[in-house]
Design a protein that fits this description.
The complex is a heterodimer. Chain A is an alpha+beta fold. In chain A, 32% of the residues lie in helices and 25% in strands. Chain A is elongated. Chain B is an alpha+beta fold. Classes of the chains: A alpha+beta, B alpha+beta.
Chain lengths: 453, 492
């Protein structure tokens, strides 16, 4: 499951954290638009929770919803998976033995063997399973850092998680491969925050400190804070995170996302310069930095090609084709006077199914009167879905897995069509290739599944 | 030569050691609240003695000093000075290193200090409001307060300060709640029982930037600054966690910190000097002893006063006293005789790092942190190039050492660079533990390159802004334009 997670720990009981978590979730909305939820702790009533399907500002539209989430500690989550039964929505809460809430971004790769440990109890989701395993370790008297450390040994998978117990213990864990991001920050002497992305830390007015390292645990309770490098880091940072998922104002794996996207645009221009073109446009929003840098490198003007209608949404991660289409059509109202009669380089972030690109190119050519449309994609060809929980469609839906660039070009109706090379991507990231997961581009995934499929 | 020291923290252990290094070969006497094992062993080694008791009681201190026939007394902590220990000693004809009660108000009353800076137009001052009634403070917060620092108007052991940056309108309500509640807590808890000043609560404009401490000796005429030191207040690494009394501190070579320029150091010293002069004008008493500016490099002024100490900082004292080359007793006599300008204040040109080790539970649950038996392998620490200074510890009659609830020891190390000194101090940590298995914690990042880099970046950011303000003639004032009222120039 793709998600965005956050945990905020107040160092004084005066703080009411629910609103901080709410704004943190707004800053994570791009990571999941289907469900969201918040759980808080106030030392009196155990855990308070509210969760539902919908966007963050819709779910928490009533002022009393946040008012009822009492306490100086809070965790929260947004996810990409629609769910009607609100008890299944994250944060997952298990009632016993120690009441524990847990938010989880990722995928468990030894689910079957983990499930055998908890039989006959039936945790219904991966997050519930993790919460239950953690809760049981606490119940036999383990310190939460030790419990999390043991859990890290038993769980094979790709995850960042944050858990909160009814005893006011908050623990954040990033798996030893660090595929999913996790950052830590703080606000003066007042609170600590862990979040999927550093932009959250900015938005709630705190200071970003660093990434949580792969294999690292952060722990907060009323009297102490601890950090433990439980397992030696074996980084396999998700390249797709840098290209597409994370916000450009975030710093992930010590690399500013914006810088990477500027590098990508430059390298794309070096690799596939559209010499005849006279204007560069970017598809909002992710591709805008690519397009700016492409234009600079190519020595061609950058223009504004599209205006969005309605709220900003991530059309590509919507669950149904209909929603994706509505999303894209609302997102991309073209500015005719900018496009008409021009030879255009259209820079896009990731061409997955090809349908939205085809739509856009057709619109530009047929309705807006573009003379030429050269498509440049700021990511390498996506050839397989992600087994680690990032929302990428199944293989039979991936155009790049089936067609050559020349064929894609004809399908979408472009004059030329090029993806960024994998080598170019690695160069743009500035992270050693051995420390990256490039699975969706290469089909080779670095962390094995232990379960039989 | 006989010298009596008042106080029992690591700061006093470092002062004691500096006194004992003197060529006058003084006998060390001590008056302490708890039995600091480091100070006791120095007393024994030099043929002196110690007493325990209420060190804030002037009568107790004067009686002890008379009984020991000491030549002078060195008062380490602030509370004895606030209670008039220096005044009582001088009236009994015993010289004292430590300010009289009236000039010590520079530290004791933060409201006094701010008024003094404004009245005398001393640079590095902040806008503030002092309140005698909590209701007025709360009303002010409701009406005006945005980004502010809330402080008890009196020095109360360094506690009770809350700094709130309030820059996101969407989180203002939550922050206003915390500010109001904290104002009440200051009045009801932190200021409880203190009747020696009228003001209760201080609200200051919030400033941001790297902090540093300028410690100095003064005889009231001359102010001789020590090398700059930076303390680290957050309990946890990377400046995360609640506020402590200080988890460790760094000092660089050439009297400077890597993120403070010589010009900024000099300007800081000028500010401290101006305040020492102003306090004499105001109170009629010469300031004699130690004065420290707890400073910050801010966008508003560059060097800015956050608070004053009428003593050395702790842990900051432990950075500078072990590398003092000048004779401590000679310096003290020069202060007493008001001829500090005639003696040199010299230090080894090395970088130093001090790391505090605290029992778990510190700082918020000292009841849990107290009473654990301490094991320190001093020989092993020495082999690793470090030195142990005992802090909040109490030597028992049977020879065991129990924690007092705060930092239990401070480890000192020196080196060619701050990171080198930091690595040496780090290597000493495993040789300090609690015999009953209760956990201890410390900050491994103090003295590290990564933390230094952060400080340098932060300083560069602030320096850029204050230099811009100097260029534009905006230092010490704020210009605003309010619709319907026009241009307003606020003095600051």
């Amino acid at each position: 499951m793709g998600s965005g997670i956050v945990g905020i720990y107040g160092f004084s009981k005066l703080w009411k954290m629910a609103r901080f978590v709410y704004y943190a979730l707004l800053a994570l909305q791009h990571r999941g638009q289907e469900t969201c939820g918040i759980v808080t702790y106030d030392g009196k009533g155990g855990l308070y929770s509210y969760k539902a399907g919908g966007l963050v500002d819709q779910v928490f539209s009533q002022p009393e919803t946040l008012e009822n989430l009492k306490g100086w500690v809070g965790i929260g989550c947004v996810t990409t998976v629609a769910e009607k039964d609100s008890s299944l929505i994250q944060p997952a809460i298990v009632e016993g033995p120690i009441r524990t809430a847990l938010c989880f971004d990722g995928k468990l790769l030894n689910l079957k063997s983990l499930r055998r440990k908890v039989s006959p109890l039936e945790p219904r989701t991966e997050a519930e399973l993790l919460a239950l395993l953690f809760s049981r370790k606490l119940d036999v008297g383990l310190h939460p850092v030790e419990a999390a450390s043991q859990l890290m040994g038993e769980v094979k998978g790709v995850y960042s998680l944050v858990a909160l117990t009814e005893r006011g213990e908050m623990v954040a864990v990033r798996d030893p491969h660090g595929v999913k991001p996790l950052a830590i920050g703080s606000f003066g002497f007042d609170y600590g925050v862990v979040a999927s992305e550093s932009c959250v830390i900015d938005v709630i007015g705190a200071d970003f400190k660093s990434d949580v390292q792969p294999g690292e645990i952060y722990y907060f309770d009323e009297y102490s804070i601890e950090r433990r490098q439980a397992v030696k880091p074996k980084p396999k940072y998700c390249a797709f995170e840098h290209v597409y998922l994370a916000r450009p104002d975030s710093i992930v794996n010590e690399v500013p996302i914006y810088n990477t996207r500027i590098n990508i645009g430059k390298i794309l221009a070096e690799e596939h310069l559209a010499e005849n073109a006279d204007l560069v446009l970017g598809v909002p929003e992710t591709a805008i930095p690519f397009a700016i840098a492409y234009a600079q490198k190519a020595g061609k003007p950058f223009g504004l090609g599209f205006v969005q209608t309605g709220r900003r949404i991530r059309s590509a991660i919507k669950p149904t084709q209909f929603e994706r289409l509505v999303g894209v059509q609302l997102k991309l109202n073209p500015i005719k006077s900018a496009i008409s009669g021009r030879r255009i380089v259209l820079v896009d972030d990731s061409v997955v199914r090809g349908t939205t690109t085809k739509n856009t190119v057709n619109l530009m050519r047929n309705k807006m009167g573009a003379r030429e449309v050269h498509v440049r994609v700021g990511s390498p060809r996506i050839v397989t879905p992600c087994p680690y929980g990032t929302e990428v469609p199944e293989k039979d839906e991936l155009i790049a897995a089936h067609l050559s660039p020349g064929e894609v070009s004809k399908v979408v109706g472009a004059d030329s069509f090029h993806w960024l090379s994998i080598k170019g991507l690695v160069k743009a990231l500035g992270i050693p290739r051995k420390n990256l997961c490039l699975g969706c581009f290469t089909g080779k995934y670095p962390i094995p599944f232990e379960d039989e499929k | 030569m006989k010298v009596m020291l008042v106080g029992e923290a690591a700061r006093e252990h470092a002062i004691a050691e500096a006194i004992c290094r003197s060529s006058f070969e003084p006998k060390l006497y001590a008056a302490m609240r708890l039995r600091n094992p480091g100070i006791i062993s120095l007393c024994k080694r030099t043929g002196g003695e110690y007493v325990t008791g209420k060190t804030t009681d002037p009568e107790f201190i004067v009686e002890s000093a008379k009984r020991f026939h000491v030549d002078f007394v060195f008062v380490g902590p602030e509370e004895p000075l606030f209670h008039g220990v220096a005044d009582a000693l001088e009236e009994a004809g015993i010289p004292c290193i430590g300010a009289r009660r009236a000039p010590a108000e520079l530290e004791m009353s933060k409201a006094f200090m701010r008024r003094l800076m404004w009245k005398h137009g001393i640079p590095g001052r902040l806008r503030f409001k002092a309140f005698k009634e909590v209701e007025d403070a709360v009303a002010y917060i409701r009406e005006y307060a945005e980004s502010v620092a809330l402080k008890p108007a009196r020095q109360v052991g360094g506690k009770g300060v809350k700094v709130i940056a309030d820059l996101q309108a969407y989180l203002s309500r939550e922050k206003a709640h915390v500010k109001e509640q904290h104002a009440k807590i200051i009045s009801e808890e932190h200021m409880k029982g203190y009747t020696d000043i009228e003001d209760r609560i201080l609200i200051e404009e919030k400033v941001e930037g790297p902090e540093y401490t300028l410690q100095a000796f003064t005889d009231g005429r001359t102010v001789k600054p020590f090398p700059l030191v930076q303390d680290n207040k957050n309990a946890f690494e990377m400046d995360i966690g609640p506020e402590t009394g200080g988890m460790g501190s760094i000092a660089g070579r050439g009297m400077l910190l890597p993120f403070i320029t010589l010009q900024e150091y000099r300007r800081s010293a000028e500010i401290v000097k101006a305040c020492v002069r102003a306090v004499e004008t105001e109170t009629g008493y010469k300031y004699k002893g130690v004065v420290s500016g707890q400073m910050m490099l801010t966008a508003a002024w560059g060097p800015t006063i956050i608070e004053f100490y009428c003593r050395f900082g702790d842990p900051e004292a432990v950075n500078v006293l072990p590398i003092l080359k000048s004779d401590m007793v000679e310096l003290c006599q020069a202060i007493i005789d008001e001829r500090l300008n005639k003696v040199k204040l010299e230090f080894e040109d090395v970088a130093t790092v001090v790391k505090g080790i605290a029992p778990k539970g510190y700082p918020d649950r000292r009841d849990l942190a107290k009473g654990h038996p301490v094991l320190v392998d001093e020989e092993a620490v020495k082999r690793k190039g470090g030195r142990v200074y005992y802090a909040s510890t109490d030597l028992q009659p049977d020879g065991t050492i129990l924690t007092g609830g705060s930092r239990l020891v401070e480890i000192f190390a020196k080196g060619k660079s701050i990171p080198e000194a930091g690595r040496k101090a780090e290597a000493c940590i495993p040789f300090v533990r609690l015999a009953d298995g209760w956990g201890v914690f410390y900050r491994s990042d103090i003295g590290s390159e990564i933390l230094l880099k952060r400080r340098i970046e932060q300083a560069e950011l602030v320096r850029g802004v204050y230099k811009y303000r100097f260029r534009k003639g905006l230092v010490g004032k704020t210009i605003e334009w309010i619709p319907g009222r026009g241009k307003i120039v606020l003095e600051a």
